[in-house]
Fold this sequence. Notes:
By secondary structure, this protein is an all-alpha fold. The chain has helices spanning 3-30, 37-55, 59-70, 74-92, 95-118, 121-143, 148-153, 162-184, 198-211, 247-266, 282-296, 300-314, 322-329, 343-362, 370-382, 407-428, 432-436, 441-450, 460-468, 475-488, and strands at residues 221-223, 229-232, 235-240. The chain folds into two domains: 3-146, no CATH class; 162-488, Neurolysin, domain 3, CATH 1.10.1370. The relative contact order is 0.12. Bound molecules: zinc ion.
Amino acid sequence: MGAFEELMAWARQTRALAQVAGRLAWDQETMMPRGAAEQRAEEAGAMEAVLHARRSDPRVGAWLEAAEAADPGPEARAQLRLIRHEHDRVRRVPGDLAAELARLTSRAQGIWAAARAEDDFAAFAPVLEEVVARKREEGAALADGGDAYDALLDGFEPGMTAAELDRIFGEMRPRLKRLRERALGHGDAAPLRGAFDTQAQLELARELAGRFGYDFARGRIDLAVHPFSAGAGDDVRITTRVSAEDPFNCLYSTIHETGHAAYEQGIAPAYRMTPVGQGVSMGVHESQSRLYENQLGRSRGFCHWLYGRMRAVFGDLGVADEEAFYATVNRLHRGYIRTEADEVQYNLHVMLRYDLERQLIAGDLEVADLEAAWNAWFAEDFGYPVDRAANGVLQDVHWSVGLFGYFPTYALGNVYAGCLHAAMRAELGELDAQLAAGDPSAATGWLRRHVQQHGGLYPPRELVTRACGGAPGAGPLLDYLDEKFGALYPG
Ligand code: ZN
């Protein structure tokens, strides 16, 4: 066997084991008996140790060098690019720092959850300080002389830099703030009123997933506290949740997760179980889920169909007519929580976290000053003060588990979605008639052809540029938001 074949055999088996570990994590969130938590931690730890040993296998570097020297063609080059990317990252971080981070963040997550329940940032600050200190070290090790934050970001969005994000976000912030100020001046649109049968919600959620192209023969939907999608290739599962008062929570988080799952299910079968056979970055992943959820799922056309379908399922929805329904689906409202934010304000939440975490990693901000910095920034961008830490600096789990450089990919996903949506509309023309018939397949088919089937074949920026016929920027997203919310909130 040549070096490339040996490397690919190693990569396939590593990937298979990672899938098994991922299924353990899925099980923990959906099916696992309550009493099994401690045993599961041991099982997950054992899998992690096996995976770590494989990833730091000393033979990988030699295989890579030999295979790269042979230059075996474009698809193989993409496989090598992805293996090289991960190999260099694993190699640069000292083993004891990686182990220390794993121990520290598993402890920090518990402390964060307790601190959030008590609304007490001071209880979380000491362990977060340790996490930030270790992440600075990790970033410096990964950066190898370059910028530490860029190096952390590169783990989630290969090739992206903070300088590029600054340019994109700098264009977004003023226009989003103008839009939110104008919209909130109109007063809140009413939410739905009533109690909505949860079994009927789940049935409708399954129907929606199917309409958006989810393949149930290679997936399943279960309940979990936080919706997520997990897996790859022939086994991609999604979870959702139900609330009797708020059926949109279940329905739209299902469409969102269907976007993630459709990406994984849509990758060309030839790439299955290889490095190319998975979504290429967090930003591109989020572009699929957000486009399914927002540009398609919350469009006027699809809302027409959903209004009729929901009335058939639930009876009276407590809204006057279809126009009021559309306004309710797209309502802007004051709030503190990122995950509950509308299309306009969501990105402001993300940018706030991005700026703070960048300063933390650079050493320009210390954890002791983080809560005050958060509150000042929030008041500036949202126009009202944070009322308590659980609604502010303690609301997200990410920093406690060491995810620095992850937040900006949420907003980047929206930026990519804006570009892809504009390119799709330019090519396909009017989609509203199909969406109004409850049929997004023309749109999802376009995404499958231009984005999903490629998996990791192209780096993220190249993938989006090829699909859109130009480099990604914030313009298309901002124009779409201005048009949509300008019509909803005229003035
Ligand atoms: Zn998502």
